[in-house]
Structures are given as structure tokens and as C-alpha cells.
């Protein structure tokens, strides 16, 4: 039976000992939650000045996440008065300047947000489309963007001159697809510019001024796009090198731990592993190795090594044999060049060379585990010189 909770008992004091003994137990009302302050109230109850001062030390990515936690935080961080918070946060964390055509929260979302800017699909193009200030999935790329090749078709009811005017003041970006690429525009921006030009009379001063200002804005946007792409490329490279260093350090630590346990280099070689053993899956993680994780993966790695010892020795033996033959061949070729006048060496076929007992013995020593050094090559070299001398003597006698 499930044990009952203990009940705090109070008695009604009537001055009568009998009534005290017969008093009915009464649960004392307690409110445990009232003694604890909700975590959200720590933020919502905070003065805006204090909240703003603390928020400056968060990264723009953290500010985005904070703004999505409650209406109160969103009201503060998405207001125009919070611009200083975003600017200080951006500069503190070494981010590039915010483009003039978007605000600070939009800029932070462009850099750190996830999902398509239009449909919120999780899978998007590899990098943000900085030229258009969006992240886009393949579906929205087809429906929301228009390429420079298709722009004329999209504006088929307009003259070539108008199409040229529109394309000259629109922000654009290059998007590559395989070996091919094209410039793309936002259809919404194309439609906005199209409506503006329709409202302005041809050859009017207002139209000329609109086109001049539009071209200036486009050039300014292009300049900020180039800076953003350079910064993003540098950031990606730094992340790639950091990831590589983490992987190398993790792998080296795992290998060192296994060697301490007595395993050889061949035990740790996965070139002939079955894919189902998942050796690389365990090694290639994007985080440093901890003692707790080592305790979890050590039995798995030892199990894979036991499978490797059971199934791969013949393959490793053949691999070592090929290595020894390669070492032997390089020395044989060099020796043949030195004795270029020897007709016997020139006529010596490879299959005959590999059948010489001294060559076989050198290659197969200790199951092909001993490298062919200059010192170990000397007996073979001596044998070849003797064979060449015997050949010359037989030629003279013959």
C-alpha cells in the first residue's frame, strides 16, 4: 500500500483535557509556492534600467532567445529604445556593423536565427543570403526569388528600359547551384519598385530622383554585403579550424588511453573495419573527451578492437606485404639505374625478382612487419651483384 503523507496536527484549546484528547486532527494550510519566487518574476519584476544594463552583456543570439521567452522581454528588447542594448552587445562580441537597411534585431536574426525567413522550414541554404538579408529554403527560393535570367519574363508587360531601371536599383546576390550560378532578386522588392515607378511619370524629375536615390541605396547595401560575407567567411574558417583541433585532440586522447591499455597501432587502425562497427562515429564528435564519456565509450572501443583482431588479420598481412614490396621496389629501381650498363638487370622481370629467396625472406620477415631499411637491403644488393657477375662470365665463355 502506498504510504500516506504525514499530516501536521493542531488541536483546539477548550480548556478540557478530554476534548483535547478527542480533538479531530486538522491539516494546517501551507502554501509552499508562495515562499518561492518564480524565475520569470525575477525578470518581469526588474526595473527596465537594471534589465537593460544586464542585457548589454549578453550576445545578440542570447538577446534573441531572451526576447522570445515572454511578452515582457519582447516588449523591452523589440522597442526602439532598446537599440543601445543591441549595439553594445554587438560591439562587445566583435560582430560587424549592422546594415542601414535593417534594424539590430533583424540583423541578429540574420546572423544567428534558424530556419527559413519566409516559411520557417528548418532546412535552408547553407549560408544566409546576405545580399537580400534573408535565410531561404529551396522551396522559397523558387517562389520568393527571381533570377536575373527570369527577370525579363517576370516583368513581361514592361519595356526593356523599365526592366533595366528596376534591375539597376534592386539589391541582388549571387547564389550558386553546383557548377552554375545566377544573380537573384527578391520578388517583393521587385513588386515594390515596379509600383513606385508606375506612379511616377516617365522622364519626370521625381522619377530621375527616385532612380538616383535607389542606386545609392543599392550600392550602400552592396558594400555592407561584401563586408558581411568577408566576416562570415572568416568566422566559418575559424570555426572549421577550431572543430578540427577539437577532433584531433579528442582522437589523440582516445588513442593514448587505448595504448596505455596495451593495444598496438594495428589494433587502432580502422582501414578494414566493417561500417557497422562505427569506430569513426565514436571518435568524431565535436566536443572534447571527458572522463565520464571515456568510461562510457571504452567498452565499445575494446569490443570493436576484439572484432578487428578476429576478422581483419589477413587483410592487414596483405597490406603490410604491399608496403614491404613498395619499399623493396624503390631500392631495386635505384640499384638498376646505378648499374645501367648491366644487360642482365635490364632483362630481369619483376616476377623473377620477387621469387628470389633472399627477397622473399626479407619481405616476409615477422609477417611482413619489419620495414626494408638500407641495412636490410644490402644482402639483396650483394646477391644481385653476384648474379650480374655470373651472367657476365657466362657471356664471356659463351
Automatic annotation (TrEMBL):
CDD domains: F-box_SF
Residue intervals passing through the bilayer: none
Stretch forming the signal peptide: none
SUPFAM superfamilies: F-box domain
Domain F-box: 40-89
Protein name as catalogued: F-box domain-containing protein
Record organism: Schizopora paradoxa
